[in-house]
Design brief:
By secondary structure, this protein is an all-alpha fold. The protein has four helices and no strands. α2 crosses α3 and α2 crosses α4. The two termini are 20 Å apart. Keywords: DNA-binding.
Length: 74
């Protein structure tokens, strides 16, 4: 992962975790809802450790029924 983008990855991860918890979902439940995503990938994204594809983020947002813009807010 490019060090220049660490802050935004962490912001996305923190917001993702908050939204997942608001929906009372485990990482595994979210991974299952998003389809073909490993639970460990959800964990890595939430912890700002994963350089993910945009399509992966879209699948997660669809599973959470949220707008992708919500993940970029600080």
């Amino acid at each position: 992962m490019d060090e220049k983008f660490v802050t935004i990855y962490k912001t996305i991860g923190e917001n993702l975790r908050d939204k997942r918890k608001e929906k009372d979902l485990s990482q595994q439940q979210l991974a299952d809802l998003a389809g073909k995503i490993d639970r460990s990938k959800i964990s890595d994204i939430e912890n700002g450790k994963e350089d993910f594809l945009f399509s992966t983020l879209l699948k997660i947002c669809t599973a959470l029924d949220i707008n992708i813009e919500e993940l970029f807010k600080r």
